[in-house]
Amino acid sequence: MRFSKPLLITKLKATGVHLGLSIVIFIVMVYQIYYNWYPQPYFSIDGGWQGVRIVAAVDLVLGPLITFLIFDLSKSRREIVLDLITIVTIQLGALSYGIYQTHSQRPVLLAQIGQFMISATMEQVDGKVGSASDLYLYSDEKPPIIYADLQLDQKTMAEIANIDLWNNVLEYVQTQSKDPKSEFVAAIKSMQPELLRLLDAFESREPYQAWLQQNNKKQDEIMVSRFVGRYGAVWLVFDLDGKLLSYFADASL
Length: 253
Hints:
Order of helices and strands: HHHHEEHEHHHHEEE
Radius of gyration: 24 Å
Mean pLDDT: 88
Number of domains: 2
Shape: elongated
């Protein structure tokens, strides 16, 4: 497709204006994703980065590209208005879908099951809780962290998207756990000998020691658990009261 020089300049100017506005929207959305929906380490290993890529593709690429292709000041005013409505409609529709997908796939709950911690999306706990905020009844962490004393086979544990798994987790917490936070702290504390042995199995003893040194902590002052996200794994670090302090890399990945 070839354009005359004046038309090309007009298209580039319109595309530049559109891109500038899109960048503002993109910055706002990245802030929301990074700080509210997928705080670290979940941004890196549990879907946040994938969400940013979806928003970027729609907001920074699709919208400005459509503007470049169809905007033309030589058209009648009516045609220009219709073009602008088309551009806005397509971009808002696609952007809304991308934002919805990113928001709905955010981790809203973490559960310690056996020696590993995994996350659930709102879709996976829907029907067992009224809203994501209801999960904060069990924990004040963001996202909430609980313990579920479930005997699950390796196949079920591997299928972290399994809805039945999260039905069982929430049923346990709602019906059998008198104090979810205290139960989580007691469980993870009792698991520390085995979890510390797993550091070697996952080649993470070195980053563990580095974290202790950098934060001036002793081994008996913290607790760790391996969180397995959808796109990687890290070791979460807790104080002895079960408060999440930080994380360090899983060196096996």
